[in-house]
């Protein structure tokens, strides 16, 4: 469904969010107080406007209250970011997602009502470290502190074995949810299905169990 999103702050993060939302077919209002940055987004948003996002009257006159969702991507100016978040919540926006510079910034934003706080550099740093830690790891999603979904490449250890032979559930306590082979995704793998070298296995389980499976089996 098409969403109406206001993106405030058109630095690297805001610009990338804006362009991608536009590509996905959503209606984006892009705001920055720097005219050059706004001009750069003209072709990638439904509306691009020069305004100070800490000025409540400007936000109201732009009709920001009618938007479903706001992204505040002002990272360099803590005061502006906090003030803008507070005002968007006061105006009544249901979903206000905000980029934070660090943990202290994050805590303040949560206090003033941000619905989601993102620390892109911090989060990306963690992801890069995980990828470096394991060359077999393609991607992962943390479901909670303990449970994750991971994508692992099948090596010669698992190749040419059936799921039944691997018996991942009984041996490691985790479950193979799907097997990707090129463009094909087998979402209901059967015990008799054979894994090939280079397949991508999608598993769900406790982090420690997934790690044990990764170390011993792939
Ligand atoms: P990144 O780290 O993603 O590149 P920056 O923090 O450098 O992002 O960029 C923040 C953007 O937010 C800048 O383009 C800046 O002009 C804009 N900005 C800062 N304060 C305000 C404000 N009060 N109103 C509108 N835009 C603002």
Describe the protein.
This protein has 218 residues and is of the alpha/beta class. The chain is built from nine helices and eleven strands. The protein has helices at residues 12-23, 35-40, 56-61, 78-91, 103-111, 120-133, 163-166, 168-172, 207-217; strands at residues 4-8, 27-32, 47-50, 69-72, 95-99, 116-118, 137-142, 147-153, 175-181, 184-186, 200-206. The chain is 37% helix and 26% strand. The chain starts with a strand and ends with a helix. The strands form two sheets. The chain has a six-stranded parallel β-sheet with strand order 3-2-1-4-5-6, sandwiched between helices. It binds adenosine-5'-diphosphate (ADP). Adenosine-5'-diphosphate binds next to helix 1 and strand 2.
List the helices and strands and how they pair.
Elements: E1 4-8, H1 12-23, E2 27-32, H2 35-40, E3 47-50, H3 56-61, E4 69-72, H4 78-91, E5 95-99, H5 103-111, E6 116-118, H6 120-133, E7 137-142, E8 147-153, H7 163-166, H8 168-172, E9 175-181, E10 184-186, E11 200-206, H9 207-217
Parallel strand pairs: 1-2, 1-4, 2-3, 4-5, 5-6
Antiparallel strand pairs: 7-8, 8-11, 9-10, 9-11
Bound molecules: adenosine-5'-diphosphate.
* Uncertain stretches of 5 or more adjacent residues: none
Shape: elongated
Task: Determine the N-to-C terminus distance.
Answer: 39 Å
Q: What pattern of helices and strands is seen along the backbone?
A: EHEHEHEHEHEHEEHHEEEH
Our estimate of the beta-strand percent is 25-35%
The percentage helix is 25-40%
How do the strands of the widest beta sheet line up side by side?
Answer: 3-2-1-4-5-6
Structural category is alpha/beta
Number of helices: 9
The unique ligands bound to this protein are: adenosine-5'-diphosphate
Gyration radius over CA: 22 Å
Mean pLDDT reading: 94
**Mind describing the biggest β-sheet?**
6 strands, parallel
Q: How many beta-strand segments?
A: 11
